[in-house]
Amino acid sequence: MRKLIIAACAATLLAAPLAAQAQDGNRGSAAERARNAVAEDIEKNWVRPTAEEREVVTSHTMQAHGKTLRYKATAGTLTVRTDAGQPTSSVFYVAYTLDGQPLGTRPITYMFNGGPGSPTMWLHMGAFGPTRVATDDPVVERPGPLRLTSNDMTLLDKTDLVFIDMVGAGYSRPLGDAPTSAYWGVDGDADMFARFILRYTTKYNRWNSPKFVLGESYGTLRAGALAYQLENRGMSLNGVILLSSIMNYGVRQPGYPQNFVSLLPTYAATAWYHNAINRDGVSLEDHVQRAREFAAGPYQTALNKGHNISDQEKAQIAQQMSTLIGIDANFINAANLRVELSPFRKELLRDRRQTVGRLDSRYLGIDASQVTGAPEEDPASSAVTGAYYGMFQDYIANTLNYRTDLEYRQSARGLPGFDWNWSHRPPVGGPQTTPNTAIDLATVMRRNPHLKVLALNGYYDAATPFFGTEYDLNQMMLEPHLRKNVEFTYYEGGHMMYTSREPLEQLYRDLAKYYDETSNGGVR
Asked: What is 61-72 written as a DSSP string?
């Protein structure tokens, strides 16, 4: 039946040419060949969301890190099933495997973005894949023609790479009659990713490979729960990499002082970058360290006093904050020392009629009105989204030869039934209404003392501030011998620090060292 449908599609596509050529036998023969070619192309390359697993494999060569890398790219879908074998989702992925390497022992990294709701287009096309959207300075990218370059900072020399789209995002789709809770919620989503990784590992014989997961943003929260689910199902990881982390949503709820404490060093870094304070020869790192010490000391103490703080102490704290973050002390005082992110983004450069970004506070925006209390948009997001989305569409179809009639969805949000379930059942303690998967990660580390965690942080990331990452991971309450397995690195970039060339180069160096120390793998 499927081939009949394909033939019908091909016939429809060629109906007009065939009518014109019907009077000429030779032309008819050419048309027949053309029709067969179209049908063959559809059969081979055009895939639909069914339980049938499909893949398109292409071969490539590139230069990176002083080496010639020959590799295969596999774009395809795997079917996630329940324990009873019922399909719940068709999950799209792109995998890159280096030629001439023993697959059984070569490191492999499973990667995903966050949202929740995002496909893994950003990590794929901006950071670690073999090609990269050419961005650098924090400015708005021009529309087409766009620039896609060979990524000489790819991680492919150290590890094979598997980029996974969550259900409802990219080309991943639900299947069958499974409830949306099977994949649209903290625990259902982690279960889906665990089942995908187990399926991929088995299908491609990677059980003996050093195995890593790398998540960005909400993907770091997923990584904590996922690491535990994999450990519980017999897969011990070598490493968990957290890029722009947010693992504990609980302390980020309204009314909790910790969120203001976490944001203050990022505010300070932002003010330093935009010359909104008197730098007086102080480096970014030194200014951020001053902000850390103030935030964890006098500022947190003042916030904990609530409305019982004295007017004198409140004024002193406001003045100290003003020196660090570039906002007028009277504004800070009027906000009861609790400067929300949106007002900060609007207020910092109000005299210049500019706003600053959320994902990356180096980016600048211009609002229609300077009066409103919140920026109209995040310029850090709108500056690069068109370039990434456009180049991915071109790359996947024309370089990787993966063609489909499905829409590549920028987000699962907005789909029927998308109502994220934020509850979480951690391995220890009671159920959570707001998730903290650092608990899951800590449990895994106690079971598997060889697991190494690397947290990658941008100084200008106001969406998942670096000081918040430090807080979340420092609350795992690890024994001294396990604390050395957690490492932090920092970059002069934002949420996606890899959009700038210099942080990307540093990112590669840090990760190359991490892989060498953790897996003893990679190309030698």
From this structure: EEEETTEEEEEE
Would you say 244 and 507 are in contact if contact means Cβ atoms under 8 Å apart?
no
Q: Which residue, chain included where needed, has tokens 């943003």?
A: 217
Q: What are the domain boundaries of the chain?
A: 2-47
pLDDT at 104: 80
- Secondary structure class of 109 (helix, strand, coil): strand
**Which of 518, 524, 461, 459 shows the shortest CA–CA distance to 486?**
518
> For the residues 324-344, what does the mean pLDDT come to?
97
pLDDT tens-digit profile of 134-173? 998 999 888 878 788 999 999 999 999 999 999 999 999 9
Q: How does 188-211 read in b/e, with b if 16+ C-beta sit within 10 Å? A: bbbbbbbbbbbbbbeebebeebbb
Give per-residue pLDDT as tens, 346-378: 999 999 999 999 999 999 999 998 887 789 999
Predicted local confidence at residue 28, as pLDDT: 53
Burial of 515 (0-12, 13-18, 19+ CB in 10 A): buried
Q: Name the residue type at position 291.
A: A
Question: Does the pLDDT of residue 253 top 50, yes or no?
Answer: yes
Report CA-CA distances (Å) from 245 to 221, 281, 455, 461.
Answer: 7, 30, 7, 10
**Amino acid residing at 351:** D
- Residue 185: CB atoms within 10 A of its CB come to 21
Q: Burial level of 22, CB count in 10 A (0-12/13-18/19+)? A: exposed
Strands (E), 54-150: 55-64, 67-81, 87-98, 108-112, 131-133, 148-150
**Banded pLDDT at 31 (limits 50, 70, 90):** low
pTM: 0.89
Helix, strand, coil % in the chain, rounded to nearest 5:
45, 20, 40
